[in-house]
Amino acid sequence: MEILMSQFFGALYGFLAIVLGAFGAHALKKRFTAEQLSSFETGVKYQMYHALLLLMLSFNLSFNTTLETVVISFFILGTLLFSFSIYGLCLTGAAGKKWKWLGPVTPLGGLLLAGGWAGLIYLFIKDFVF
């Protein structure tokens, strides 16, 4: 089940990164400030990086441990919170009605992504160090 979840979200996030990246580059370019466009692009980049990571991990992890499942869950939820809160902040800011409550969501997503990477590091070194 975790393999399918990882593959599904990897493919979904990859697809949406392409669509949102094109949308940002073409439709939003004239509506966004340079700062908003840069932030939007950061969200797209991180989303694509983690889409590819989810796909790679789905083919390389056995998902026999709770830690492997937690790592994947952190990447899925972290990407959602990080990238999509950035999109929301940029879009609502450009409309003049910025949803400020999304501000704290972005670092929470980043923290989950960092936690996923830390868990991945542990998975790779645990047999050699501990």
Automatic annotation (TrEMBL):
<feature type="transmembrane region" description="Helical">
    <location>
        <begin position="46"/>
        <end position="63"/>
    </location>
</feature>
<feature type="transmembrane region" description="Helical">
    <location>
        <begin position="69"/>
        <end position="89"/>
    </location>
</feature>
<keyword id="KW-0812">Transmembrane</keyword>
<feature type="transmembrane region" description="Helical">
    <location>
        <begin position="6"/>
        <end position="25"/>
    </location>
</feature>
<feature type="transmembrane region" description="Helical">
    <location>
        <begin position="101"/>
        <end position="125"/>
    </location>
</feature>
<keyword id="KW-0472">Membrane</keyword>
<dbReference type="InterPro" id="IPR006696">
    <property type="entry name" value="DUF423"/>
</dbReference>
<keyword id="KW-1133">Transmembrane helix</keyword>
<protein>
    <recommendedName>
        <fullName>DUF423 domain-containing protein</fullName>
    </recommendedName>
</protein>
<dbReference type="Pfam" id="PF04241">
    <property type="entry name" value="DUF423"/>
</dbReference>
<dbReference type="GO" id="GO:0005886">
    <property type="term" value="C:plasma membrane"/>
</dbReference>
<comment type="similarity">
    <text>Belongs to the UPF0382 family.</text>
</comment>
